[in-house]
Design a protein that fits this description.
Blueprint lengths: L19 E7 L4 H9 L7 E8 L5 H8 L4 E3 L8 H13 L5 E4 L8 H7 L3 E5 L11 H8 L3 E8 L9 E8 L6 H26 L1 E4 L2 E4 L1
Parallel strand pairs: 1-2, 1-4, 2-3, 4-5
Antiparallel strand pairs: 5-6, 6-7, 8-9
Helix pairs in contact: 1-6, 3-4
Length: 218
């Protein structure tokens, strides 16, 4: 006698985790971008930089992106008749990459209504001070001039203000008696890069919730 066993049902394949897509906006050397590019090579990070958009050509951050094989775009304010038109073009350029999260990494322009209408609530930025103290382009200088003993860095959700969005995470950096703007800023940058990578990875893996002034990871 022969018997033929009927094959049982094939178990479903486990779902493939989708990689969280990052677009990074840059204006200069791209040290924060470099930290994210280093991190995204580890699958455990959970996110990958899929596009880099600059507000001016010829900057080192664009070279970093190209060396890493990441597509780039340049949307320079000078090429548009006004900020509203530029903001719309920036929105479209970022949208090409279908990001889950947008990271402003040393991006020295304020985004506008078009951008926030599409990417608001999922765009984060870093600032070299403990917000809400010392917002603006000279946070390190202003903190030193005030005479603080502790400064640091903040990661925030971008809104329509100047460094005014909900705080996601902060880390302190002591101020030495002999610090000047350059020495303090360099120490803050080291912490800032680490904090940014940690926050972006946690957003990718656990999510980000924003309720009013409160931003929560996970």
């Amino acid at each position: 006698m022969t018997s033929s066993a009927q094959p049982g049902p094939v178990p479903p394949s486990p779902p493939v985790a989708r990689t969280h897509r990052l677009v990074v906006l840059v204006s200069g050397a791209g040290s924060n971008l470099a930290a994210l590019l280093d991190a995204h090579t580890d699958p455990a990070f959970g996110a990958r930089v899929v596009g880099v958009v600059a507000d001016r050509p010829g900057i080192a951050a664009l070279d970093r992106a190209r060396d890493a094989g990441v597509p780039t775009a340049v949307v320079a304010l000078r090429d548009f008749p006004d900020r509203t038109t530029w903001d719309h073009a920036l929105t479209e350029a970022v949208g090409v990459f279908s990001p889950d999260t947008v990271v402003l990494a040393g991006f020295m322009k304020l985004v506008g209504a078009s951008f926030l209408g599409r990417f608001g609530g999922r765009t984060v930025n870093t600032h070299p001070a403990l917000l809400p103290s010392f917002p603006g382009a000279h946070g390190v200088r202003d903190a030193l001039a005030y005479g603080v003993k502790v400064s640091g860095c903040s990661v925030i959700v971008v809104d329509d203000g100047v460094d005014a969005g909900p705080v996601v995470a902060q880390e302190s950096v002591p101020v030495a008696d002999d610090d000047d703007e350059e020495t303090l800023h360099e120490r803050i940058k080291v912490v800032e890069r680490r904090l940014l990578v940690d926050v972006v990875g946690r957003i990718a893996r656990d999510g980000l919730t924003v309720e009013g002034r409160r931003a929560r990871l996970g």
